[in-house]
User: Fold this.
Amino acid sequence: MSALKTTAQGGIKSEETLVQRVAILGAESSGKSLLAEALAKQFNTCWVPEYLREFVEEKQRVPKAEEQILIARTQLAREDALAKNARDWLFCDTTPLMTALYSRYYFGEADAALAALEQAHHYAFTIVTATDIPWVPDGLQRESAATRQRVHDELISTLDEREIPFLMVEGSVHERVEQVQFALSFLMA
Assistant:
């Protein structure tokens, strides 16, 4: 078994393969999960579901401030596990950057460990889902269309401040997949 190594571009490199991680970021009810699943299908690879959704369903509550680091670490552990089975791309439905952003939004801060994970944004490509689709309530995990817009605006500001390039995708899932496919075709060349 060959050792795996994370590359500077966000890939997992082994002797046989190079998997590029793609971060899919966005506020609540902006289509991240649908897009991640559709992209995985389109590219015949894996996607990493958002662990927060599973956490909320299992615990029947939203996480506390001190649990935010668990959310982020579990998300990354699942990325690492699924990267071993991915083909070319691994589509990641959220990252520690979003966990930290929500932690600041709801709790006023992200603890030092979460802030460190957020700063290590190690993705080959970043996609942001626009808020152009209808907001849909989803139990405990979604608050309101107004919250969605505030978080979206903060995400864009954060990415701009950190100089993380991103592709904003809009429209239907099909249109979003086409936009990503076009952009990734340049990275594959």
